[in-house]
Amino acid sequence: NAGVMQNPRHLVRRRGQEARLRCSPVKGHSHVYWYRQLPEEGLKFMVYLQKENIIDESGMPKERFSAEFPKEGPSILRIQQVVRGDSAAYFCASSPPGQGQGTEAFFGQGTRLTVV
Amino acid sequence: GDSVTQMEGPVTLSEEAFLTINCTYTATGYPSLFWYVQYPGEGLQLLLKATKADDKGSNKGFEATYRKETTSFHLEKGSVQVSDSAVYFCALKGNRDDKIIFGKGTRLHILP
Predict the structure, then answer these.
(1) Which residue of A lies nearest to B97 if distances are taken between CA atoms?
(2) With helix as H, strand as E and coil as C, how does chain A read?
(3) pLDDT above 90 as % of chain B
């Protein structure tokens, strides 16, 4: 049973480039969450998606950031024109559908983005 | 909106000491509560959970009791080990949506 798979594990981008972070949820899970973790800080909620739908993007910056979870394939977090302040660890989590609020989320190992 | 507050770290203890990490929450209704642990360089792993008032979650010697009257979910362990050194996150999942809200995390150092 594969868990949540994120790739790449480490990503280096120059300022102004685009970063694409991929997340394959646990098989059968239809809910995906993205979080950002800055060094020595907690997890900041970014976006919550279900298959083909964005449910809550209240934590996502309005510009340069976007997320999708297509019917087929992984969820993608896309950061355009990256700046140094985007350097962080980005974690994806998934949970199954219809299991109620007691269902926990399963986390990937994260993608560590460094903007140089 | 919903929120989680947990004690600031780092917390440094000697091996075999008693551990408490405080966590309180603000939410409407009856959220589910979780403790996650993050080891260096890794993602978060679920440590334990509780889904209703007075439930006690337990795992690997850790315990936490869902206290609705004090809106708390404090993490405890009777005798910590060096291998427990990690960052611990308290979290809630509200009953209005499936969004999971995390506290800022508490870094725990256990000295041999």
Answers:
(1) A101
(2) CCCCEEECCEEEECCCCCEEEEEECCCCCCEEEEEEECCCCCEEEEEEEECCEEEECCCCCCCCEEEECCCCCCEEEEECCCCHHHCEEEEEEEECCCCCCCCCCEECCCEEEEEC
(3) 79
